Amino acid sequence: MSADSGQTGDLVVLGLGDYPEVLALWGRAGLPARPDGRDAPEAFRRQQESGLQRSLGIRVEDQLVAVVVLTHDGRKGWINRLAVDPVHRHRGYARRLVEASERWFNDEIGVEVSAALIHTHNDGSRALFDALGYEEVDVVYVRKLARPGA
């Protein structure tokens, strides 16, 4: 399903059938994945079907070159797993995906806070979100895995 078209690639809503391409793109982009944990095909399916997650991508000549996974909890929208194929970087794809994410959160589901967690060493992502008007918030992120590799 095309959400937006242009000379620089088609913005599309991704479905369950796109999972293998998403996983491959994360690998090309150097984004670690947990294919036996939270990124497993069954987990991806369950998350997509919940209605709390949407995955967007950009296709160029039918190849997936950029992806983002969006989730929300009803109060805050989360921009997750944003990745662009290294061969296709610096073409505005990440910006387009973030802007499309904000439209989904704000206009379609009524969530007014968009957020992302970024590793401190990821200067490219930090610069992108800064340029888009996001503020860095000093927080401590804690987690507990239900099982190793989750």
Rg of Cα set: 15 Å
Shape: globular
Total DSSP helices: 4
Low-confidence stretches: none
What distance lies between the first and last C-alpha atoms, to the nearest angstrom?
Answer: 30 Å
SS-derived structural category: alpha+beta
What features would you describe in this structure?
The chain is α+β, with helices and mostly antiparallel strands. It has one domain (2-131): Gcn5-related N-acetyltransferase (GNAT) (Aminopeptidase). Helices cover 29% and strands 24% of the residues. The chain has helices at residues 19-28, 41-49, 93-108, 123-131, and strands spanning 2-4, 10-14, 53-60, 63-72, 77-84, 114-115. Strand 4 and strand 5 form a beta hairpin. The longest helix is centred in the last third of the chain and has 16 residues, at 93-108. The protein is globular.
